[in-house]
Amino acid sequence: DLIEAQGEIGVVKEIEIFTTKLTGLSNREIIIPNGALSNGNIINYTTEGTRRVDLVFGVSYDADIKQTKDVIMGVLTSHPKVLKEPAPAVTVLELADSSVNFATRPWCKTEDYWDVYFDVTENVKIELDKAGIEIPYPHSVEIQKQG
């Protein structure tokens, strides 16, 4: 199982008398004392078999909300690893300082989490570009000295 405990995330490799060994996401061994493990919270990411991927995409205030939602939803519904049920969701999350932020929430099998996370992120950028929907970013202004 993939768990998060004591500030660490990893796959349970071995449970011994005094410690539990995890293999971390970057293939490092994590050893957690069982006393600390049993007295703290444990999040098990694999128990249910599915996970929701939580992504946020910010677009320009000039962008059409319906069109943006349609573009993002098109990416989700066309991805082979995004589940039909529970249905993916795209909603306006917030009106931020420089962008309208959309909460994007597809569901997938636990083993497909990172594929969906990275594929959807890349494909949303590609499709927003194709649709002419701008993702705002900070612009620096150069001031030239008059001499």
**Overall average residue pLDDT:** 93
Q: Could you name the ranges where pLDDT drops below 50 across 5 or more consecutive residues? A: none
Please, what is the oligomeric state? single chain
Straight-line N-to-C gap: 66 Å
> How many distinct beta strands?
10
Structural class based on helices, strands and sheet pairing: alpha+beta
Helix percentage: 25-40%
- Radius of gyration equals 21 Å
Q: Give the helix tally.
A: 3
* Main sheet makeup: 5 strands, antiparallel
Q: Could you tell me the strand content as a percent range?
A: 25-35%
H/E element string?
EEEEHEEEHEEEH
Shape annotation: extended
Q: Strands of the largest sheet, in order across it?
A: 4-3-2-1-5
How would you describe the overall organization of this protein?
This protein has 147 residues and is α+β, with helices and mostly antiparallel strands. The chain contains three helices and ten strands; from the N terminus they run E-E-E-E-H-E-E-E-H-E-E-E-H. The chain has helices spanning 34-39, 65-78, 113-130; strands at residues 2-5, 8-15, 19-24, 29-33, 42-44, 50-52, 55-59, 89-95, 100-105, 107-109. The model has no long low-confidence stretch (mean pLDDT 93). Strand 8 and strand 9 (100-105) form a beta hairpin. It has a five-stranded antiparallel sheet.
TL;DR of this structure?
This protein is α+β, with helices and mostly antiparallel strands. The chain has helices at residues 34-39, 65-78, 113-130; strands at residues 2-5, 8-15, 19-24, 29-33, 42-44, 50-52, 55-59, 89-95, 100-105, 107-109.
